[in-house]
């Protein structure tokens, strides 16, 4: 399975890439423009291979056009009524179709009409559109850190991306391999081999060993996946000529504007990437990865010791998954808005959320004392939980056939 | 004879329930020691404490002159009543792993495994998975696992359950051989005939308390009823009965005999057996004269039921 999984993953990616790279069927949109102002602007959009093909049918009878929509001669009909003032048009233009149109199509249509109206208004006011265009200006603020390092805008996206990717990786790893720890504890219980093992080693040793062993197995598996996956990805994209990366299903209009920004972003990004605290990000990732995984898998092990089978584990799993999900949300909403705000700082200290939240903060620059506090809190909690879990373990592993309650778990602590 | 294991005043409570109440045991070195008791008496609790799976609430345990410590797990072999092995792991790998946990080096473990697999005639099982084996076969593996590291103290909880008579005999012989080599064996079971056969010492635990402990012969002496089974061929039954009932308590008996004789149970109390014999020989021909020795089974049932009566009277 270890070797098949990446293969499957790549196959799915190639399949999706192939599907989204397939040319969508061209849709024919009729335009009934009673003002006669907009049709030409839509016709300009007609290009070879474009998704939409516009036809100016302003002369035709409206009811006949509506009929032809129901008969599916056209895919859609834009109805622009005549008004005294073009500014009154808003809300009166209709789009008639059998199927609901995509959001990007509607936005595009609105854009075309709105910019035309703006242009008309400017002309009415006898303003020089060229001069206005010239007068418009773009301002780029140069961001400089107090420490003197230069920083650029656009960088925030990269920071969020890196922090988010690492945080997400940690969460996935915890969920997948934490479960593995729990399953292996339950397996030993149901096999009844636990009594032999526990008469040779201490529960604490067994648990630590299990957590470390599973994490090493997990890291190895992850690495095999990553290497095979990447290799296959390159091979597949070279062989099929299919773009399997993200961005294949972005609407053309957006893709175009992205394309323009892209080279700029890449340049800026490369420049900025060198300015990122790469070393502290990587070291932080390793430390929080280990700390977070250890902490959570000791919870998983304790649950495994407390229950008899996987189904019974559900009631205890929820309180563990919650902080994980919470930290991802905090990471993506709060940290992004205000990396050094009270909420972000608080949650990057709390051990259950710190592995993910702090990792997402590190690219924005975190004072070392905050990291020190957060890491020591994390590891202190880890040892506390392992001690606590070993207690539950000692009693729980030898209990069969009973679904424990929270109250009983508390009682076991005192044995 | 010195004791390998001494259990001193061990108390174990689970919440309000007392599993072991001031239990003390002395297990002599090199003996086979039967730990008896009905279900739920506290045997498994005691065994788990000796294996350091759980800790006693009070009391102490002395192994080979030292207080029980974590290092001692390497000198104890344990066959739990609830058998189990990793079902998807190969037999050989699994045994190596479990042996190494008991402190053997890999090479030594391999050597021991070869010896035992050869001895029990299961060489071909090395690459089989446990789930491919029958229950009895898995039991054999489990037995091997618990003796691999040559433990000084071997604790066997119901070692014969799940074995057919042939294999049970094989295991019994192995247990006796281990004893010859100097191992001390604690043997927890309900099967009294195997206790009679193997054990030199026994302890009976009932409702968290130790009721009886000692050498099997001593315990039996303690429980002897001083009654004899008698078979006699006589022409004058009435005269005989008259003579005996003057002195002793008599009840009819049944045992196998080739003769058509009169079968009696005679309690002689403090009198000597010769006195009885003397009367008997005057009245007829004695064909059968045996002291009724209580079996462990009788002692077990008697003690447990008497204890029940005591408890209900209180």
UniProtKB/TrEMBL annotation, chain B:
<dbReference type="InterPro" id="IPR003439">
    <property type="entry name" value="ABC_transporter-like_ATP-bd"/>
</dbReference>
<dbReference type="InterPro" id="IPR027417">
    <property type="entry name" value="P-loop_NTPase"/>
</dbReference>
<keyword id="KW-0813">Transport</keyword>
<keyword id="KW-0536">Nodulation</keyword>
<dbReference type="GO" id="GO:0016887">
    <property type="term" value="F:ATP hydrolysis activity"/>
</dbReference>
<keyword id="KW-0067">ATP-binding</keyword>
<feature type="domain" description="ABC transporter">
    <location>
        <begin position="5"/>
        <end position="232"/>
    </location>
</feature>
<dbReference type="InterPro" id="IPR003593">
    <property type="entry name" value="AAA+_ATPase"/>
</dbReference>
<keyword id="KW-0547">Nucleotide-binding</keyword>
<dbReference type="Pfam" id="PF00005">
    <property type="entry name" value="ABC_tran"/>
</dbReference>
<dbReference type="InterPro" id="IPR025302">
    <property type="entry name" value="DrrA1/2-like_C"/>
</dbReference>
<dbReference type="GO" id="GO:0005524">
    <property type="term" value="F:ATP binding"/>
</dbReference>
<comment type="similarity">
    <text>Belongs to the ABC transporter superfamily.</text>
</comment>
<dbReference type="InterPro" id="IPR017871">
    <property type="entry name" value="ABC_transporter-like_CS"/>
</dbReference>
<dbReference type="InterPro" id="IPR050763">
    <property type="entry name" value="ABC_transporter_ATP-binding"/>
</dbReference>
<dbReference type="Pfam" id="PF13732">
    <property type="entry name" value="DrrA1-3_C"/>
</dbReference>
<protein>
    <submittedName>
        <fullName>ATP-binding cassette domain-containing protein</fullName>
    </submittedName>
</protein>
